[in-house]
Amino acid sequence: MAFQKAVKGTILVGGGALATVLGLSQFAHYRRKQMNLAYVKAADYISEPVNREPPSREAQLLTLQNTSEFDILVIGGGATGSGCALDAVTRGLKTALVERDDFSSGTSSRSTKLIHGGVRYLQKAIMKLDIEQYRMVKEALHERANLLEIAPHLSAPLPIMLPVYKWWQLPYYWVGIKLYDLVAGSNCLKSSYVLSKSRALEHFPMLQKDKLVGAIVYYDGQHNDARMNLAIALTAARYGAATANYMEVVSLLKKTDTKTGKLHVSGAWCKDVLKGQECDMRAKCVINAMGHFTDAVCKMDDK
């Protein structure tokens, strides 16, 4: 038992030293990058949105019905589908987005609500000396800071308390969490700290009291994924994308390619779930962004 603890201690110290060197090098690289970005001028820019206020659903439906052919038709109004629509319309493509339920009604409203770098992945990176795991944590921490900066109305720092029930785990976890703060560098939200047993029980009286040693508090981010999804869809609509919720795809439209002679998808036959009206939407490209319902659309193409 003592030998195992000694080995773990050696690995932790060695891994900690490695993480420190990598963290400092990454921090220096980040600072150089930020200094260079300060002198870069935008080569291009996106014009102002077409509509200051998103068009009504009725107006959107008229656009969907009266447009002879779109450049892109996106099926699925989750985060991925809305993101595709926003990306396409801001590139000047005639874009349509349909969702059979409400926007963000599926996976995009059922996440953990966390934006985190991944403490467990950092542990794997140190214990197994895995540079790829470390890079993934570093990138995730950078994206966490980016999301907190660009969407402060939808994101916020979140304190997370880790109860500790063995004395040797207290310094072990404390060092690991401090390395997590170090890897975050300038993107660290707030420094982690240790709570005594009494303070931990004061915050969470329902904790198991027996053998409780204390607790460690560290910070990650919390994010309102459903509202972010809706914001992306509304932004796409403001830039001119024809978007409609409760618009179900009944079947896919196909036509023969004049060059190859093969059938390919050229749009979709859709039904307004609220009013029962149906219409066809032609498009040069159809994107299946249905998440875990992807196979339902794939079977429409090939059973």
Automatic annotation (TrEMBL):
MF terms (GO), sorted A to Z: glycerol-3-phosphate dehydrogenase (quinone) activity
Root EC class: oxidoreductase
Required co-factors: FAD
Keyword Flavoprotein applies: yes
Record's keyword terms, sorted: FAD, Flavoprotein, Oxidoreductase
Reaction catalysis annotation: a quinone + sn-glycerol 3-phosphate = dihydroxyacetone phosphate + a quinol
EC number: 1.1.5.3
Domain (FAD dependent oxidoreductase) ranges: 71-301
Family under the similarity heading: Belongs to the FAD-dependent glycerol-3-phosphate dehydrogenase family.
GO annotation terms (biological process): glycerol-3-phosphate metabolic process
Protein name: Glycerol-3-phosphate dehydrogenase
Pfam families tied to this protein: DAO
